Hints:
By secondary structure, this protein is α+β, with helices and mostly antiparallel strands. It has helices at residues 4-12, 75-78, and strands at 19-23, 28-31, 37-39, 43-50, 56-63, 67-72.
Amino acid sequence: MISALELKERMNAQPFKPFRICISDGKTYDITHHDIMLVKRNAVLIGIELDSNSIAERFVECALLHITRIEDISTAQAA
């Protein structure tokens, strides 16, 4: 299981490196900017449907228990 601390460290890394969160149901979420995700004790809120300024239209909540892996993605993939 991925820990909340591990996610916080990825989000606060300098420089920030985009990453993908893979969920047990097969969905994936690209974290392309450090402020589109909020880490809670047992879950994360992920901003989706981002506009050109990385402002989210809405959020999805995912329990940490359901995160199967984290993958690095290139900035070209994140665009």
